[in-house]
Write a structure and sequence with these properties.
The complex is a heterodimer of chains A (632) and B (177).
Chain A: E1 21-26, E2 30-37, E3 40-43, E4 53-54, E5 56-61, E6 64-67, H1 69-73, E7 82-84, H2 94-100, E8 118-120, E9 123-125, H3 127-146, E10 152-157, H4 163-175, E11 180-185, H5 186-198, E12 202-209, E13 214-222, E14 225-234, H6 239-254, H7 262-281, E15 284-292, E16 295-302, H8 303-328, E17 335-341, H9 348-358, H10 371-383, E18 393-395, E19 402-406, E20 410-415, E21 423-429, E22 439-445, E23 455-463, E24 475-481, E25 487-493, E26 501-506, H11 512-520, H12 530-560, H13 563-580, H14 585-631
Parallel strand pairs in A: 1-10, 10-11, 12-17, 14-18
Antiparallel strand pairs in A: 1-2, 2-3, 2-4, 5-6, 5-7, 8-9, 12-13, 13-14, 15-16, 19-20, 19-22, 21-24, 22-23, 23-26, 24-25
Helix pairs in contact in A: 3-4, 5-10, 6-7, 6-8, 8-9, 12-13, 12-14, 13-14
Chain B: H1 7-10, H2 21-35, H3 45-66, H4 68-78, H5 92-110, H6 114-141, H7 147-176
Helix pairs in contact in B: 2-3, 3-4, 4-7, 5-6, 5-7, 6-7
The chains are: A alpha+beta (632), B mainly alpha (177).
Chain lengths: 632, 177
């Protein structure tokens, strides 16, 4: 057996090399990718020098998919095959999408799947694989610019995204071939970029109004710790809605009926958006519409009139602001700053209303389009391990309460909103029939008391409960929310210690097999052998495991493991190393699992040791401070 | 070995109701800096799993210890008194008091200057809340605490906590009108 080279403490096992990591802001209207390069963080441009990638995908044919500005340019000539604002569909059900109704100019497939499927010239696509195309474009841009393979990515999501929307985003990133370090909330990402830049301390509000989503977060900033106190928002409110409102005004002025064709509707939206953007600088704008070959309309829109049209939408942002402050237990006069994020905060009326509400002039000096991607890149750099001495810590919260359906369609809250994550809460259930072996659990997310008013996340079937008299089984179901805001459920029968099998049926998500199928039939599978890709994935995973374990062993194997334990670990490790060179992805996975299993006690010991050290260090610090106080 | 016996020992704090919240908060951040899963983004699968679990425990313990109501309930549980889910209080004077406060909140929301009236009602609730909190604090501080009596006061505190939440919702609705 090849023995591990034990290095001296403090000496690293391999010379440190900068690992490539990126931050991606996957926006409703535009997306961006950023990275830390030789110390400074910047967004990356395409070969034409453009940083913003319009979040638009045009499905021309099975072999031709266009993403970005070129796709956007075709939006009104090819509306059915050009998908815009796909973020609004992420993690949504077909019925939600229908309630957005006439506003969406696509052909949806009427099917049994819970996920809305869009019919295009390139076949049927889900919002997840459309988003994956946008992410893939950014991944390729980053690989070209940075010149190498990426270790991982931080992808931002609106803080107010529910679990289904987060899961959909993560699925998209995985389909795009990205290793997701973390899903990071957009306002938190902005706070990182802003806080590290300004060295600011105290409580700040991040007001983030994007193309399709609105978030407001209250954070406490303190020496590299970003603690989210509360977050609130509306995951279907943004600049898009302003465009719709302005387009509706144009339709009534120009006498265009609601059932106008897709191309006209698209044209209206583009004109509305242009008008809104022009009115940021100017007092009035003239609009020229060519409805068809022989009809056209010309008119003008003043800033005052536009303000009147969009005011109700802006007022809608103030309610979440109030709620976030209340949940955080912070009053307006305790705020250090209000920071504006998102393209829609360029609208002068938004700034005026926010200033009036918070009673202070909001900060607008950082580029509201880029700040989220930059914050994500900074965190990606830290998570990749490029800053071992960095003291950054992000503590985020769950935006909406998690609950369970109880008798009579009511909701019992398990984890209330604004609880710091990760978090685990257990709930005990019992059987109501003799010998009952299964039980179903319905998990929902939202603040309302009735199940139907909350968002259905998943139904779980607990099976394999050992036969017992009614009421005597004690089934403990643990709900765990990780740092990404994603839910994981485990169940245990406490009397027998039997772990129940849980079958997850996501209400608005894709099952493992659906994702698999999509990967198989993804646009460019011709040039990407699925099998090879799987092998590559497992090799990367194996390398990661080997590297992490070896550096851990070098660190503390001598103090934490006896000879027998070390040789057991080394044995599993050397088998993994050998199989990693082979070509059987399944076997590599098995070996990784074996190593994980053999090492679990060691991981636990290391964690305990770290905690002991941290607390001891803490006590020493405290002792010193006390001493100082006594002496002074 | 840091065996997680209870939430207090996790933070290496004495088992007591009276707690230095600033110190609790400092220790919380120290622990999170150590166990947060972001420290293990490039680690092994089991490291990441462990980290999520540990960070979850730390967050859960912190949430309980920083809230006076939850901390009191937790201490009672440690002393063998399980919180009853649908406990009722039959003490006439308390029943009168809670009825009056509920009525004053309702009439406040119907007044012309409802916002100020509801805010005043909340201040009133807070006063009563604090007085029960003091009783609980003193109860725990005694040499041999009467846990039954403390439990009674915790139930009352719980009631005022609920009333306060209702009042806050009312206030939010008024503000959003």
């Amino acid at each position: 057996m090849a023995l591990l080279q034990i290095t001296e403490p403090g000496e690293s096992t391999a010379p440190h090399q900068h690992r490539l990591a990126i931050g991606i802001d996957l926006g409703t209207t535009n997306s961006l990718v950023a990275a830390v390069r030789s110390g400074s963080t910047e967004t990356l441009a395409d070969e034409n020098g453009r940083h913003l990638l319009p979040s638009v995908v045009r499905c021309v044919s099975k072999t031709e998919i266009i993403v970005g500005a070129e796709a956007l340019a075709a939006a009104s000539i090819d509306p059915l095959n050009t998908i815009v604002s796909v973020k609004r569909l992420m993690g949504r059900g077909l019925s939600d999408v229908k309630s957005l109704g006439a506003k969406l100019p696509y052909d949806f497939e009427e099917n049994s799947s819970s996920v809305p499927l869009i019919k295009t010239a390139a076949g049927v696509h889900s919002p997840v694989d459309i988003s994956a195309e946008i992410l893939k474009t950014l991944r390729l841009r980053a690989e070209q610019t940075l010149g190498g393979e990426l270790t991982g990515a931080v992808i931002t999501v609106p803080a107010y995204f529910d679990e289904a929307q987060r899961q959909a985003t993560k699925d998209a990133a995985q389909m795009a071939g990205l290793n997701v370090f973390r899903l990071l909330n957009e306002p938190t990402a902005a706070a990182v970029a802003y806080g590290l830049d300004s060295g600011s301390e105290g409580v700040v509000v991040i007001f983030d109004l994007g193309g399709g989503t609105f978030d407001v977060s209250v954070l406490r900033l303190n020496k590299g710790i970003f603690e989210v106190l509360a977050t609130a928002g509306d995951s279907a409110l943004g600049g898009d809605d302003m465009d719709h409102a302005i387009a509706e005004w144009m339709m009534s002025e120009a006498d265009i009926s609601d059932d106008a064709d897709h191309a006209t509707l698209r044209q209206l939206m583009q004109h509305a958006r242009q008008a809104k953007e022009t009115l940021t600088e100017q007092r009035s704008v003239s609009i020229q519409l060519n409805i068809d070959n022989d009809t056209s309309w010309q008119g003008s829109l003043s800033r005052e009139k536009m303000n009147e049209i969009i005011l109700p939408l802006i007022k809608q942002t103030l309610r979440p602001c109030r709620q976030a402050l209340r949940d955080a237990g912070i009053s307006k006069d305790e705020l250090e700053n209000v920071v504006m994020v998102g393209g829609s905060t360029r609208v002068p009326l938004v700034r005026e209303q926010v200033a009036a509400f918070f009673n202070c002039e909001p900060l607008v000096d950082i580029d509201p389009d880029k700040v989220v991607a930059i914050g994500a890149a900074i965190q990606a750099d830290v998570l990749a391990g490029n800053k071992p001495d960095d003291e950054m810590l992000l503590l985020d919260v769950i935006p909406l309460s998690l609950g369970l359906e109880t008798m009579g369609g009511l909701v019992e809250k398990i984890i209330p909103r604004n609880t710091t994550i990760p978090i685990a809460r257990a709930q005990e259930f019992t059987t109501y029939k003799d010998g009952q072996s299964a039980m179903s659990v319905h998990v929902v997310q939202g603040e309302r008391e009735v199940v139907d008013d909350c968002r259905s996340l998943a139904r779980f079937e607990l099976r394999g409960i050992p036969p017992m008299v009614a009421g005597s089984a004690r089934i403990q179901v643990t709900f765990q929310v990780d740092a990404d805001g994603l839910l994981n459920v485990t169940a245990l029968e406490k009397n027998s210690g039997v772990v129940s099998h849980i079958e997850v049926k996501p209400s608005y998500g894709l099952s493992e097999s659906e994702i698999e199928q999509m990967l198989q039939s993804s646009f460019d599978h011709a040039d990407e052998d699925v099998k090879l890709r799987k092998l590559r994935e497992q090799q990367v995973e194996a390398d990661r495991e080997i590297l992490a374990l070896e550096s851990a062993l070098a660190d503390d194997a001598d103090v934490l493991l006896d000879e027998e334990e070390l040789s057991r670990i080394m044995a599993a490790l050397s088998i993994l190393k050998a199989e990693r060179e082979g070509d059987d992805a399944g076997l590599i996975k098995q070996c990784i699992n074996k190593v994980e299993e053999v090492c679990s006690f060691y991981v636990e010991r290391r964690m305990n040791r770290n905690i002991e050290r941290a607390m001891a260090g803490h006590n020493v610090e405290e002792f010193k401070t006390n001493l100082k106080q006594k002496n002074s | 070995m840091a065996v997680m016996q209870n939430h207090f020992s996790l933070f290496e704090l004495p088992l007591a109701f009276d707690l230095d919240l600033a110190e609790l908060s400092r220790r919380y951040l120290t622990l999170q800096k150590t166990v947060h899963p972001d420290n293990f983004a490039s680690g092994t699968e089991s490291e990441r799993l462990q980290a999520v679990q540990r960070a979850g425990q730390v967050n859960d313990a912190f949430a309980i210890l920083k809230s006076p109501l939850l901390r009191a309930q937790y201490l009672l549980t440690l002393n063998g008194i399980e919180p009853e889910k649908n406990a009722t209080i039959s003490e006439p004077s308390f029943l009168m008091q809670q009825m009056e406060m509920r009525e004053s909140l309702e009439s406040a929301s119907a007044k012309e200057d409802a916002l100020t009236a509801v805010e005043d009602a909340i201040d009133e609730i807070d006063d009563v809340y604090r007085s029960f909190l003091n009783k609980i604090k003193n109860g725990f501080a005694e040499a041999s605490p009467d846990y039954r009596e403390i439990n009674d006061n915790v139930l009352k505190l719980q009631f005022f906590n609920r009333l306060r939440n209702e009042a806050e919702t009312l206030l939010a609705d008024l503000e959003n009108k």
